[in-house]
Write a structure and sequence with these properties.
alpha/beta; Rossmann fold; pyruvate-formate lyase- activating enzyme; 2 domains; six-stranded mixed beta sheet; 46% helix
C-alpha cells in the first residue's frame, strides 16, 4: 500500500513517532511518502503520490491547519473518484477523540501506534473488518482496546527512518543536531502534562516506564552518525532521562564516551538530579540538562501543577548542575489557572535567581484531558468551547485576565529570557518592555530571535555548521520555512 504521512511545520526535533512508523511501514514493504503542510499543498501532493492511506500526526495547536488541508484533500478525492483512508494519530486524537467526527475521519490512533498501524494496514490490504485493533478507534464514542509496548518490544523495533524527514527539511541535516528517544513513560502526576492523562487512560496496560537498552541506543546513534553526517550534538529524549544512579546509567556513562563521544542534552527532574547522577552524566559527556521550573512559588508549583518540588529542591538541583559544569535549559509557565500577575512576576524573579543558562517562558494553555484543564473549566477560568492548545507566546485563554494582562503575559513569554540572562542593570528596562504595550508581533520576533541565538550558542554545542556556506544555506532555509 501507499501511505502518505502528513506533518504541519518543520521542527529541529525530528518527529520520532512518525519516523518510527515510516520504518515499520517499509519493514512491511509499503511505499511511504511524507509531506509538510507548511511547505506543500496536500491535495497537490496526493494527486502525484496517489496514496491509499493518509496519516495525519497532530498536536492540538495545529488542528485547524489539518482541517483546512483535509477539506482540500476531500475535494480532490471527490473530483478524482479516488478513495483515500484518512487516519490521525498523535496527542490531539488521543485526548480529543471528537476530532474523528469533526473531520469525518476513517479512524484515529490513540497511544502507541507501532503495533496498531501495521495491523490496520494489513486488514485494509485484505479488505477485512477493522474493529478490535488495539489503540485504533473507528468512532469517537467509547474507547478502543488499549495497549502499550513494553521495554523488550522497544529494542525489537526498527530504528526511526530519517531519510524522508531530512529531504523535507533540508536545513536540518547540515546542523549536526540529532535527536534520539531513549525510553517512554513518566510516573509523575503533573496536572498540566499529557503523561498523567495518558497514564490514567492506559491504566492497567503494562508498565508505565519503558526504557531501551544502552546497546540498542548506541547502535542507533552509530548508524545515524555513519549515514547522516555530521553528528555534532545529540538530544536524548525521555521525559526524565534517569530516575536514579542505577546500573543502566553506569553502563551508559561507561560506553557512551568511548563509542560516541559527542556532547548531549537530556531532560531531568530536580528531585532525581543527585550528586551521583550529576557525576555520571558529566562522565558520559552531558553538556546540557533540561530542568523545568514551571512556577516560582511552591503554592502554584505543587498546589496547582502537582509538581511536588520544593524551592529548596529546585535550588539544590540547579546549584549542583552549576558545580558540575552542566548548562541548564529551563521552562517556566505564566498565566496558570488560579494565579495572578503577581505570581507571574514572582516566577520571573525565581527563575532569574536559579541562573539557568537559557530560560524559556510560555503562556499556559491547559491541554485537553489533563487535570489542569479540568480544574480550569470547573472553576470558570476557561470558556467550555475554548481551544485549549496554542503556541507558547499566544494570548492567554483565561477569563480571569483582562486584555491588558493577557498582553503582559505574552510579553513575559517573549522577554522573560532577556530578563533572566542579561545583567541586573538591564532588568528595569526589560520590565518596562513587558509592561508597556509593545506590539506582540514585534515582541515575539525579538524574544524568539534572542532565545534561539542563545540556545544555539549556549545550549546545543557544535550544532551550528562551521562551514560558512553551509551556515548560510541553513540560515536561508530557516528563514524560508519559519519566517
Amino acid at each position: 500500500m501507499k501511505i502518505l504521512f502528513v506533518l504541519n511545520v518543520p521542527h529541529a526535533i525530528e518527529p520520532q513517532g512518525v519516523m518510527m512508523l515510516i520504518a515499520l511501514c517499509r519493514r512491511h514493504n509499503h511505499e511511504v511518502g511524507l509531506t509538510l503542510l507548511a511547505k506543500e499543498d496536500l491535495a497537490a501532493r496526493a494527486r502525484v503520490f496517489q496514496p491509499d492511506v493518509v496519516a495525519y500526526s497532530v498536536i492540538g495547536s495545529e488542528v485547524d491547519d489539518f482541517k483546512r488541508a483535509d477539506q482540500a484533500l476531500l475535494a480532490h478525492c471527490a473530483a478524482s473518484g479516488r478513495r483515500v483512508f484518512r487516519i490521525m494519530g498523535g496527542p490531539h486524537p488521543t485526548f480529543a477523540p471528537q476530532v474523528l467526527d469533526e473531520m469525518g475521519l476513517d479512524a484515529i490512533c490513540q497511544g502507541d501506534g507501532e503495533r496498531a498501524l501495521p495491523a490496520l494496514l494489513a486488514r485494509l490490504e485484505r479488505n477485512e473488518p477493522l474493529e478490535g485493533i488495539p489503540n485504533i478507534a473507528l468512532t469517537s464514542a467509547g474507547a478502543p482496546l488499549r495497549e502499550r509496548l513494553n521495554s523488550d518490544e522497544l529494542d525489537g523495533l526498527p530504528f526511526p527512518d530519517r531519510e524522508l524527514y531530512f529531504k523535507a527539511v533540508p536545513f536540518l541535516q547540515p546542523t549536526g543536531l540529532r535527536s534520539f528517544l531513549t525510553g517512554r513513560g513518566c510516573p509523575y502526576s503533573c496536572s498540566f502534562c499529557y503523561n498523567d492523562a495518558y497514564n490514567r487512560a492506559f491504566a492497567g496496560c503494562g508498565s508505565v516506564l519503558r526504557r531501551r537498552s544502552v546497546e540498542n541506543i548506541l547502535a542507533e546513534i552509530e548508524e545515524v552518525r555513519d549515514k547522516y553526517p555530521p553528528l555534532g550534538f545529540i538530544r536524548l529524549f525521555h521525559d526524565t532521562f534517569s530516575f536514579r544512579a542505577d546500573a543502566w546509567l553506569e553502563e551508559f556513562a561507561e560506553k557512551y564516551p568511548k563509542r560516541i563521544g559527542v556532547p548531549f542534552y537530556c531532560l531531568m527532574r530536580a528531585n532525581t538530579f543527585t550528586e551521583e547522577t550529576a557525576r555520571l552524566l558529566k562522565k558520559a559527556g552531558c553538556y546540557t540538562v533540561a530542568m523545568s521550573i514551571e512556577a516560582g512559588s511552591e503554592r502554584v508549583r505543587n498546589g496547582i501543577l502537582g509538581r511536588n518540588l520544593s524551592d529548596d529542591e529546585m535550588r539544590r538541583a540547579f546549584d549542583l548542575a552549576h558545580r558540575n559544569g552542566l548548562r541548564i535549559y529551563s521552562n517556566t509557565m505564566v498565566g496558570i489557572p488560579g494565579t495572578t500577575l503577581e505570581d507571574d512576576f514572582e516566577s520571573l524573579e525565581f527563575t532569574r535567581s536559579l541562573r539557568p543558562t537559557v530560560p524559556t517562558f510560555s503562556v499556559c494553555f491547559p491541554s485537553r484531558g489533563t487535570k489542569l484543564a479540568e480544574y480550569a473549566l470547573e472553576n470558570g477560568f476557561l470558556h467550555p468551547g475554548d481551544d485549549l492548545l496554542k503556541r507558547f507566546s499566544g494570548e492567554s485563554p483565561l477569563t480571569t485576565h483582562s486584555e491588558r494582562d493577557k498582553g503582559i503575559l505574552s510579553r513575559i513569554a517573549c522577554f522573560g529570557p532577556m530578563y533572566c540572562i542579561l545583567p541586573r542593570f538591564m532588568t528595569p528596562v526589560i520590565r518596562r518592555m513587558i509592561l508597556l504595550p509593545v506590539p506582540l508581533p514585534l515582541a515575539r520576533r525579538l524574544g524568539h530571535a534572542f532565545t534561539l541565538f542563545n540556545m544555539a550558542t549556549r545550549v546545543f554545542r557544535n550544532a551550528i555548521p562551521r562551514n560558512p556556506l553551509t551556515l548560510a544555506r541553513a540560515a536561508w532555509e530557516s528563514i524560508r520555512y519559519f519566517w
